[in-house]
Amino acid sequence: MESEIMNVLLVHAHPEPHSLNGSLAHFTVQHLQHSGHGVQVSDLYAMQWKATLDTGDDLAFRAGEHFDPSANSKRAYDTGMQSADITHEQEKLRWADAVILQFPLWWFSMPAILKGWIDRVYACGFAYGVGEHSDTHWGDRYGEGLLSGKRAMLVITAGGWASHYAPRGINGAMDDILFPIQHGILFYPGFDVLPPHVIYRTGKIDDAGFEQVRKELGQRLDTLGTTTPIAFRKQNAGDYNIPELTLRTDLAPGETGLGIHVRQDPA
Ligand code: FAD
């Protein structure tokens, strides 16, 4: 099935435009535009994105005040006093129907500049601290929130082999390594999270391999609007005890670990 026309935001992080990541970001923009999608790009190194969340993010902050990262973030968000670069990225997120985060796996996670984009753009009142908090509703998060209804997908390059990241691989299963990003960063503010697209063993990619990599990425881009999201359990849909926020004992009985937060019987 063809994807409907969407607004797609590509956020990518690599210091070298002619790297594999730079080439794939360029390919992604061309491919999506050729398919008729609207595309915006946040090329974090090219933008010289400021990665550190600090007092400069709240334009109303005065020297000598105590800086509280969450409280100042909320005040700045609520009063229109956020640093302009933060507001601009939030507007791109509001515009997008789908968001792609593309990066090389660095130390089993994202490059620091991208983490800094999350830390600063995900303001209190925007990506967290949203919705009613009560004994029965612990905020709008994990499947609800301002970014619900939008899709998100990780496109990652990794030096290691696929087998190193298999369920019994020494690096740990890729699903587990990506859980903090896919569940904690993307599902938390409401995104429907698509299965990741991981390109392994990057050191061995030659010209023929690069063509194959582009072909497989193109297929994922063509199905951005139709791929079934990961069946993460929604916080407020009845699967969790609230306010403990533990999974009900009759669901995945006796099991523990990150996998219990994914439904095995998607509705
Ligand atoms: P590049 O080095 O730019 O390119 C990779 C290959 O693709 C090269 O062979 C190149 O010839 C080819 N290529 C690039 N562009 C083209 C093109 N246009 N046409 C044809 N061929 C092309 N790996 C892990 O698995 N786990 C980790 O935790 C991890 N941590 C790391 C931490 C750091 C700080 C660093 C620097 C690396 C780490 N790595 C890790 C490896 C890292 O994930 C890979 O080096 C990275 O994903 C490769 O992406 P790149 O864009 O830098 O590729």
From TrEMBL:
It comes from the Bacteria. Keywords: Oxidoreductase. One of its GO terms (molecular function) is NAD(P)H dehydrogenase (quinone) activity. It holds the Pfam family Flavodoxin_2. Residues 6-221 form the Flavodoxin-like fold domain. The keyword Oxidoreductase applies. GO terms for cellular component: cytosol. Belongs to the NAD(P)H dehydrogenase (quinone) family. This is NAD(P)H dehydrogenase. It comes from Corticimicrobacter populi.
